[in-house]
Amino acid sequence: MRLPVMKALCVAAAVLSMGLHVDANAGPVAHFDFITHAPDSDAWWNTVKNGIKQADEDFNVQTDYRNPPNGDIADMVQLVNQAAARNYDGVVTTIADFDLLKGSVSRLKAKNIPFVTANTGTEKQSADLGALLHVGQPEYLAGEEAGKRAKADGIKTFLCVNHYATNPLSFERCRGFAEAIGADMKTSVLDAGTDPTDIESKVSAYLRAHPNTQGVLTLGPTSADPTIRAVTKMGLAGKIWFATFDIDSDVAKGIKDGTIKFCTDQQPYLQGYIPVAMLAIMHKNHNTDVAQARNELEKDPKFMKRLQDYGLKPVYEARNISSGPGFITPQNIEKVSALAGMYR
């Protein structure tokens, strides 16, 4: 009797071992699409991509990152249409232009494809589109908080250097800042474009034509880096009040040498990681219970380690997850700069 029993146990163990082996080497359990409005030239999005990549690794999923090469919103609309046609397990999209995107996003909803919005767009727009949640930074609030710091320094006039004026929500950063210091936004915004040489030239020309400008606000490294060169060549580095959104190596250097007061940080890594992680957890649970997924994510050991390693702090709300605003200053720049452009 013992021999058959032992034989059966051995067979069972072998089968179990084979099953575990298959699971360990199985392919991704879900396939997602992450669509943004960003042009290929905008290196800031590399941090978002790193968040996506590491979420894929941590949750054993595959995410396609797709964007219009030139940042054309009409092309982005087509990418969302394609996502609906391809029947992804889930989709993440930015809301670069609510009116242009709502038709294509409705196709996702019609096909019951769960989707999350990230980065740009308001929480209300996200809810109106039918998204499960939004992961991003409230743009007006971020501008307003930066403006409060400027007001405390006595700033009353400023230039807002907008390198992505094609995105209507970009102006919310300028508006929040302007209203915080009591300035007229309409006369304070420069549509700078994305060419570095043009941005430097336009900023220099504006400051020469408006010598009483007390402060400069740039909306990201694409406009910050050329503006650093402009104020440096004009002898204004460290003299004109200067703050920016988002960080790269040049911005980090500017904070260290006193050219830039601070950087408003929306923690872009989280905008890549969290949407993918939330979709992965809900896919595993076979539901779209955001609260349940969020509770699991908050306790996930791999995610917790990522937060600790990179010094990141999301803010969990009832429906949405805010990635910012935070502030990078001379006091914390050393810790952050080593990770700038990769995970911060």
From TrEMBL:
Subcellular location: Periplasm
Source species, domain of life: Bacteria
Gene Ontology cellular component terms for the protein in this record: outer membrane-bounded periplasmic space
Main location: periplasm
InterPro entries named among the record's database cross-references: Bact_Solute-Bind_Prot2, Peripla_BP_I, SBP_2_dom
Keywords recorded for this protein, A-Z: Signal
Periplasmic binding protein domain ranges (all copies): 34-280
Pfam families the UniProt entry points to: Peripla_BP_4
GO terms, molecular function: carbohydrate binding
Signal peptide (UniProt feature, chain positions): 1-26
Protein family (similarity comment): Belongs to the bacterial solute-binding protein 2 family.
Name under which the protein is recorded: Sugar ABC transporter substrate-binding protein
Organism: Paraburkholderia hospita
